[in-house]
């Protein structure tokens, strides 16, 4: 059978006539008049379906919730020169969202098995899943917490007693929050401890997260530990008061700076602010601030839940492994970052006079300041 194709503009001399070649599985042009002086017609929406539009733009539709039907239509005409209707774009958005929701439901359905696999392959780790019953009687994910045994052990044996708490909004279709906690290792570098996905950031969920953290890290009531907090969130502060009444509180200076710089824009203010962040005594504080930045992975929060957890786990594994390889080259000496800090202190205090005042107790005097040092208790009145 021969299939014929005859395309004629109808208003000018342009004409294409071709026939189907079954042996080559293609059309062969028989005659062609290329002269064409009629304006191009973009109304070719019938050539595509909403299924094609939704499948082709699924990433943009899911990641950009503000992508309107009109903007989607403009994207199609810009890239393909095809003018599609608003109805097609509306159906395409609905199709793309439903397609992703189906895969996300599968992710959530596998979360229980994922937690069991973590526990099977990482003995004495913690993987805790909580669910809530919705109005329709179905079970929905409420919280999921992860902390690996090797991470617990490493933090207890080689990290400073400082823990940073932070939270990040999830950017996918199903909203939620990613709660993270990190520490500082012996080289003063970031050490990832635990993380959790919760439905919403509130006092109840912070208490649940802190309960898990207290159990894993043996924090008891917080005596001898310091918590560095993300801004001054009332829900988190109240949870800490109840569970860790003896812990020392700190805040990220960076967040305070971002808030205050909206009101105070002068460069001299910024200089004084960062100087004050480094202060340990009142006189130095009146001059000026320092931030210990805590960095966590945020790109993963745009993805499905198991992908989020896996990317965090893989990042943590890779980081700890590389840090271990690097640390093996240092030997048993003072770690590089700490040595650098000690050297800076030595340069700034080489003109100080040290006077003994008792067993392992000294008075250190400078040109206009003096401090008490107790080597046995490892304290200094400079508080640094």
UniProtKB/TrEMBL annotation:
InterPro entries: MULE_transposase_dom. Residues 163-255 form the MULE transposase domain. This is MULE transposase domain-containing protein. It comes from the Eukaryota.
């Amino acid at each position: 059978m021969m299939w014929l194709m005859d395309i004629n503009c109808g208003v000018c001399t342009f004409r294409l006539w071709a026939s189907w070649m079954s042996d080559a599985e293609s059309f062969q042009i028989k005659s062609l008049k290329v002269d064409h002086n009629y304006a191009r017609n973009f109304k070719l929406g019938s050539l595509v379906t909403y299924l094609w539009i939704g499948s082709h733009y699924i990433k943009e539709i899911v990641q950009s919730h503000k992508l309107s039907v009109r903007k989607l239509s403009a994207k199609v005409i810009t890239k393909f020169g095809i003018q599609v209707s608003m109805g097609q774009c509306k159906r395409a958005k609905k199709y793309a969202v439903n397609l992703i929701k189906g895969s996300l439901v599968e992710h959530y359905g596998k979360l229980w098995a994922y937690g069991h696999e973590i526990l099977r392959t990482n003995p004495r780790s913690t993987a805790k899943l909580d669910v809530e019953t919705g109005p329709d009687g179905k079970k929905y994910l409420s919280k999921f917490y992860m902390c690996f045994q090797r991470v617990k052990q490493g933090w207890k044996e080689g990290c400073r007693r400082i823990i940073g708490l932070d939270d990040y909004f999830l950017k996918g279709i199903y909203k939620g929050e990613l709660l993270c906690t990190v520490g500082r290792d012996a080289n003063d570098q970031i050490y990832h401890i635990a993380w959790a996905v919760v439905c919403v950031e509130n006092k109840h969920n912070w208490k649940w997260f802190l309960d898990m953290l207290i159990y894993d890290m043996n924090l008891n009531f917080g005596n001898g530990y310091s918590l560095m907090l993300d801004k001054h969130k009332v829900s988190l502060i109240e949870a800490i008061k109840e569970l860790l009444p003896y812990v020392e509180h700190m805040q990220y200076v960076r967040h305070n700076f971002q808030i205050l710089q909206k009101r105070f824009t002068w460069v001299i203010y910024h200089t004084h602010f960062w100087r004050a962040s480094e202060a340990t005594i009142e006189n130095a504080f009146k001059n000026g601030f320092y931030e210990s930045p805590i960095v966590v992975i945020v790109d993963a929060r745009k993805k499905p839940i198991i992908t989020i957890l896996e990317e965090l786990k893989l990042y943590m594994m890779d980081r700890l492994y590389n840090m271990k390889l690097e640390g093996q080259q240092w030997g048993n000496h003072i770690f590089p970052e700490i040595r650098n800090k000690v050297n800076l202190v030595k340069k700034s205090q080489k003109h100080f006079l040290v006077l003994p005042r008792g067993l392992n107790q000294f008075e250190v005097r400078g040109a206009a300041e003096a401090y008490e040092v107790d080597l046995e208790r490892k304290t200094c009145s400079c508080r640094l």
